[in-house]
Amino acid sequence: CRHFESAGGRLYDRGHGSSLCSANRHGESAVPGSSCGPNITRNDIVNCSELVTYDIIKELILKYNIVTDNLPCHFTAAFSSGFITTIVASPVDVVKTRFLNCSAGKYNSTINCAVTMMRNEGPKAFYKGFMPSFLHVGSWNIVMFVIYEKIKMHVMRSQQSWESLYLTCIIVTDCCVDFSY
């Protein structure tokens, strides 16, 4: 959601203005966060589908021994997750964009916007701008998940090092205790 500033009793949007304008055009009060509903819905859908599909695809790749748990596995799972996420999130993105940028009184709600789109344009309308969206989400997923896996690998190695050091200390301590008698 956007940040608002108050000046002389009026709220000014520090973003592009679409949040405040959409709130006013749809008869809602012009308060901070008035357009958060569609944005939160979209973010929930994207985050859930990215994380769940990445995990499932990676598990399947490893289960069927397609590749080992390395860069090609992470790249493939991330790219596939980006594609599936775009399929799932594109309708929400298109409805959100149309609803927030529409003229006053055109749609009563996001649901009304979606129903009107389906009735007037058919299901293809929900996938306008699919390719740019996929390129954005797909490339983001590759970067995010590859970096995540690298960090996870280093943390796991570091944890194993500490555990082996701890076990060595215990063994040495036990030996020293045995020799002290």
Radius of gyration: 25 Å
| Largest sheet report | 2 strands, antiparallel
Structural class: mainly alpha
Mean pLDDT, all residues: 81
Shape: elongated
Spatial strand sequence of the major β-sheet: 1-2
Question: What's the SSE pattern?
Answer: EEHHHHH
Proportion in β-strands:
under 5%
- Per DSSP, the total helix count is 5
Low-confidence stretches: 1-34
State the distance separating the first and last CA atoms: 69 Å
Number of strands: 2
Write down the domain tally: 2
Helical content stands at over 70%
Question: Which helices and strands appear, and what pairs or packs with what?
Answer:
Elements: E1 4-7, E2 10-13, H1 18-25, H2 36-63, H3 71-101, H4 110-121, H5 130-180
Antiparallel strand pairs: 1-2
Helix pairs in contact: 2-3, 3-4, 3-5
Quick structural overview:
This protein has 181 residues and is mainly alpha-helical.
Please name the defining characteristics of this protein:
two-stranded antiparallel ribbon, 181 residues, 2 domains, mainly alpha, disordered N terminus, 4% strand, 2 strands, elongated, single chain
Give structural notes.
It is found in: Membrane. One of its GO terms (cellular component) is membrane. It is a multi-pass membrane protein. It holds the Pfam family Mito_carr. With 181 residues, the chain is mainly α. The chain folds into two domains: 1-34, no CATH class; 38-153, no CATH class. The protein has helices at residues 18-25, 36-63, 71-101, 110-121, 130-180; strands at 4-7, 10-13. It has a two-stranded antiparallel sheet. Helix 2 (36-63) packs antiparallel against helix 3 (71-101) and helix 3 (71-101) crosses helix 5.
